[in-house]
Amino acid sequence: MSEEPYSSSSSSSPFDWSAAQIEAAFSDFAKQIGPWWEGIASLAPAGLAHDALTHSVKKDWVHPFTDATPPEQGVALESVVKDLIKDLGSDGQVVGHPTYLAYVAGAANPVAAIGQSLAMLLNPYTGTFTTAPAAVQLEDQTIRWLMTMMDWPKAGSGLLTTGSSLAIFSAVLAAREARPAPLGKRRIYVSDQAHHCIGKALFAAGFMPEETAVLASEDGRLNPQGAADRIREDKARGLTPIMLVGTAGTTNLGRVDPLNDLADLCARENIWFHVDGAYGGFFKVLPEAKILHGLERGDSLSLDPHKAFCMPYGTGALLIKDVKAIRWPRGLDASYMPPYDAGHMRLEYSDISPELSRDFRGLRLWMSLKVFGLSSFRAHLAAKWQQARVMCAALEDHGAFEIIAKPDLSLFAWRLKNDPSSEKTRQLFTAVNSTGKFFLTACEIRGQFVIRTCILGFRTQQSDLDELTAWLFSFVEKV
């Protein structure tokens, strides 16, 4: 850099950098991160700290951050960035690696990073319209774009969140207020394949464990008739059904619940219908994803752009039919807060979220859509949709593999045939992850050990999956 970053000619503050200093710092950062970005395929997708045998952090991994006290004097920014790329860029799981096929994680696009940097430097407060009207309108527009993608009714609204955990928490609170019932008499209905964050949301919203009815799934999907039977039984016992959660893409098997049928059930019984679309919701933009019909009929819908939509972690959304249902009281009187602007056609974000201080997280999503266009994201998802079907069909045709769940979206699950104890499947799982070339995860389904393959990253090409398939074929032929 041409100037010392810790001295400034414009003021006495070390934080008040000149334009030249900012430009030089970002230029140096780009030069350092560029080789990592282009060389990501050469890294181990599970990270250097991952132990394939125990599926945990290696015991001999050296922790790079051990100082108990902060440094009194600063050091050069260039050296800090260099060390961070080394320490953070390879030890952990490399989400976005071409053969990272674990969990439900995509990869963050570079425009989102630029958008986030811009949001942080501009640093608008988006909790209220009057403090940052243009920034709030940009987030409003982003929500409208999401509504359009999801075929959501124009009268609806929503907000951007840190992820589905916070989105579902807000939906649970809305259902609780919209369907009031005595404590202990309420019932929430979820599948045994529903995401575990729903349980946390229910706990935070004050629901007791016995108020949650966990329904057995059939082939990984919530059975509408089974749900209807349980609801009828509960009502006969004097209980009050409050909410039912359908999932558009389960974590274990990638299953999509029969959303239209569940929407019909909720409409008949006057139950709040929430759709968890964290993983699968964005496949709604594909004409071939007819399995998602009914998603738009939910009273609320949670989405995670940081999964299938190429955004960095911390980018979630909640769409809701009636935004007033998620309005929070301000609590204590706060005369210092700006009054509600009646000319602004929505509630303040600080009024419809537990967050008062909030990140301007809409900019990274808005900029990505603006720069790439929806067609690029649609093509990306169409590729993942097709890749999952090609690889799944190859395993099925081989004869040594049992397909537990064909892809509803871009995730499928499988195991080895003639393996009642799952010992051979576990051996294969350990062996494939031990190569350092591929990274898969597994789950337990009906007492069986099952391997998941989740295809979401934009770097993942069919050739990467063909290489994995060939390795699997070679393994089973040897054993």
Q: Brief overview, please?
A:
This protein is α/β, with parallel strands linked by helices and 479 residues long. The chain has helices at residues 19-38, 77-88, 110-122, 133-149, 164-178, 197-204, 224-236, 259-269, 305-308, 362-372, 374-398, 423-434, 462-478; strands at 50-51, 56-57, 157-161, 186-191, 212-215, 217-218, 221-222, 240-247, 272-277, 300-303, 316-320, 401-405, 411-416, 441-445, 448-454.
- Write down the CATH topology of the largest domain: Aspartate Aminotransferase, domain 2
Structural class: alpha/beta
- Sheet of most strands: 7 strands, mixed
Query: Low-confidence runs (pLDDT<50, min 5 residues)?
Result: none
CATH class of the largest domain: Alpha Beta
Mean pLDDT score: 93
Task: Give me the side-by-side strand order of the main sheet.
Answer: 3-11-10-9-8-4-5
Which homologous superfamily in CATH is the superfamily of the largest domain?
Type I PLP-dependent aspartate aminotransferase-like (Major domain)
Strand element count: 15
Percent of residues in β-strands: 5-15%
Run of helices and strands:
HEEHHHEHEHEEEHEHEEHEHHEEHEEH
